[in-house]
Specification:
mainly beta, about 170 residues, 1 helix
Length: about 170
């Protein structure tokens, strides 16, 4: 979605037959509107928390990301609700610790009538979540969804260094 794209919402009236698609379209309108607001008024980057720490236990390096909140490049809200611990590859190098928005289907419901082509299980809700990963590099495409939390450098024979210079902060109003 671009800044000046026009948004459409459902026009409700008495007696209207609403389908699941109408309700999805209405949800999409509000999501697009919030993303546009976030992206254009607050920018993108870390809002709070999401601090990165590294612990070396006899050569096994663990990267820990604290809970926090960020806005993604497209305006999506990235919430890391709990501390995340990740193993760092066992070789010297350079990495980026990054987070992105994600969704997953939850609350499985049995399908009313299973027929040809019917998946058999439907889900009652979509949970907004996040993914935190240690990447070799960020994707260089225009739709890159990642927010950099820190850069890690592990020089030969030395400790892992955490650099937050590449960490972008969202504007707080």
């Amino acid at each position: 979605m671009r800044l000046l794209d026009r948004l459409r919402r459902v026009n409700y009236f008495t007696g209207q037959l609403l389908t699941a698609e109408d309700l999805r379209r209405d949800q999409q309108y509000f999501r697009d509107r919030l993303r546009r607001h976030n992206r254009n008024l607050h920018g993108w980057g870390v809002v709070s928390g999401l601090d990165v720490a590294v612990q070396d236990n006899d050569g096994t390096v663990t990267v820990t990301v604290a809970p926090g909140y960020a806005l993604g490049p497209q305006g999506e809200e990235i919430v890391v609700a709990e501390q995340v611990s990740l193993a760092l590859p066992a070789a010297e190098g350079h990495w980026v610790v990054a987070a992105r928005y994600d969704e997953r289907l939850v609350e499985p419901l049995p399908a009313a009538g299973v027929g040809a082509g019917d998946p058999g299980v439907r889900f009652g809700a979509t949970e907004e979540t996040s993914v935190v990963e240690v990447l070799v590099a960020l994707p260089q495409d225009a739709d890159n969804p990642w927010v950099t939390l820190a850069e890690l450098h592990w020089p030969h024979g030395g400790p892992v260094q955490v650099h937050q210079g590449g960490r972008r902060l969202a504007k707080a109003l």
